[in-house]
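Workshop exercise sheet. Pairs work together: one partner reads the sequence aloud, the other fills in the structure field after running the prediction. Swap roles for the next sheet.
Pair: D.N. / O.F.
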Amino acid sequence: MVLEDLAQVGLQYPKGLSMDIYSYQVVGGNEGHDIQEINTLNHYIGMRTITRDELRDLDWIPFGLVAMALLALRTALLGNVRAMIDLSMVAAYISLIAFARFVWMLYEFGHDLDPKAPVKIAPFIPVVIGDKQVANFHTWSLPQLGSILLGVFIAGVWGLTLLYLWRGRREARIRFAPAIVYVTTMRGAEGVERIDVPAADNQPVLYSISATRSAAEPRGAAAFRALALGDVGQAILREHGFLPIGAK
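Structure field:
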């Protein structure tokens, strides 16, 4: 896929000259003839000849794309936030380095001019994205399908990563939000900070126990009530954090 399209228009070239940059090759418009014309024009201002060897900074891009594809597959298989963070960081690193190297490459082409060139112009940076006037030529550079798809992929990865981080933070806040609970509920709880309510502000919860008139086993109900109110029952309740009868 094409990563970048560079073109220029001048009086002697009303239809313009174009050049497409791939990660593995450079292709001129008009069946490859445009790149020869571009190099001829660049020769007059002392610019180096544009060849694939001169664009060797692009050599590592296919390996970077393969690395992102493998990390994306790993993320899909693991399905956790850590894998998403790994993928987003690697994707950001590859995209930023690729863009920085592309800008630096253009900078070198526009500043490393032959001082013996027939036409003298001030050093310049060729257009990165957008349009620019260079001498009597109007030039422009626009991202193509390859760069657009890569940008969409990276933006999607970062969007999903930030979404998962935001959801995880929100769930953590809900899970560990402060709450007022019974003392008996806290017994056996691990990893929870306990803050006791001052005695002056605390209000014990009173429980009552009785046998209903319509109990299916009235004698069993009465026996259970007697057990709960007796010494054995009270000891069991105290062991589980309940206050004994008459406590304040």
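Discussion prompt: Residues 4-174 form one domain. What would you look at next?
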